Amino acid sequence: MHVDPYxxxxxxxxGLLVGMTGAGGGALMTPMLILLFGVKPAAAISxxxxxxxxxxxxxxxxxxxxxxxxxxxxxxxxxxxxxxAFLGAYLLHALGNTKPAQQHxxxxxxxxxxxxxxxxxxxxxxxxxxGERRLGVVHNLKPRPLPTIAIGVIGGVIVGMTSVGSGSxxxxxxxxxxxxxxxxxxxxxxLTQAVPLTLAAALGALIxxxxxxGITASLIIGSVPAVLVGSMLSSTVPDRYVRPAIAFVIFxxxxxxxxxxxxxxxxTLCATLLAGAVLWLVFARPWQARAEALEEPSx
Length: 299
What we know:
Elements: H1 5-21, H2 25-37, H3 41-66, H4 71-94, H5 99-130, H6 145-162, H7 167-177, H8 183-208, H9 213-236, H10 239-257, H11 262-284, H12 286-295
C-alpha cells in the first residue's frame, strides 16, 4: 500500500473546504484524483467515498459539540437520503452504468448548483441591503417533514447515481426551506446528515466498485485533520464570512460538473474572486468605517 504525499496535500486543502462549507468534497476530491494524479475514475470514485466515511464524522462531531446541529432535521433527511442512495445506484445500474448516463446527471446537477450559487449570492446581497441577519437558533427551527425528506431523497439519488457528494445542492435546498438558519448551523446539520448517507454510498462502492486502499489512506491522512480545522472555523466564524465561502465552493462545484476544464476553471475562479473583492470594496467601503471608528472617540 503506497501513501502519496501529494494526494495528502491535495486532500488536506479540500478537507478544509468541506469542514468550512459542508460542500465541495466529492465534487472536488474525485476530479483532483482523476485529473491531477491520473487515478482511474472507478478507483477514484470508490476510494473517495470510503475515505469520506472516515472524514465526515470528525467534522460532524465538532459541530455536535458546538451545538450547531439540528438532529431533528438530520433524522428527516436521513429517512429520505439513505434509501434513495441505493435507489440511485440501482437507477445507474439500470441505465447501464455508462459514462454518458453519468455525465448527463452531473451536467444537470452542475446547472442546478450554478443557479443555487447565484441565488445564494443574490439573497446574501439583498439581506445585507435590508439589514437582515440569519440568526435563527438551529434547535428552535420547526422541521417541515415532507420538504426535508424530499431534500434527502434528492441528495441520496444524486449520490447513488454520480457516486460523488451532493452536499452543495442539499445546502442550497436547506437554505431555501429554512431561510432563517445561520450558515454555521447549516454546515453542521448538513455534515451530520451526510455521515449515514456517505456510509450507504460507500457500501455500494465496496460491493460494486474498486477501492485503492493506498489512495484511500492518503485521502484520510490529509483530509481528517483539515476537516477538523475547517469545522472549528465554520462553527465559530460569523455568518457573513461563512456564507460567501459556501456560495463560492458551490459555484466551483457547479462549474466542474458542467464540464469546465481545469485551466479554464482556475482562471474563472480567480476572476470571480477578483470581481468579488472589487465589489466588496465598492459597496462595503471599509475605509469609511475605519474613519468613522477613529472619529468616534473625539465626539
